[in-house]
Amino acid sequence: MYKAIGIWSWPRDEDRAEFDQHYEKVHYPLAEKLPGARRITVQTGGENGRASGMFRVAEVYFDDRAAFDHAARSTEWQAMAADAQQLIGRYGVTLLAADGEEVDRQY
Asked: CA distances (Å), 41 to each of 17, 31, 37, 38, 90, in order?
């Protein structure tokens, strides 16, 4: 498995409901259209996550690096990235993005 990870910072308190609505109605559906995406998980940190600055963590899973690379070059990815820029500008959030192999370890 290979995955793309997006870590969103907290929106302003007065913007949170609007941010959540846009994320759920616009941004997430754009991610669902990514070619080769096998699974998407989204976790919101809740109030305990506020100290870390992490509000939401989204992970998009692909079969392998080649599938991720294909998606990253797609028009669907461009649309999702453009929407992320709108979220950043409109709500004052930041987005930390990374990608890499998922390692399966037993603890």
From this structure: 20, 11, 11, 10, 24
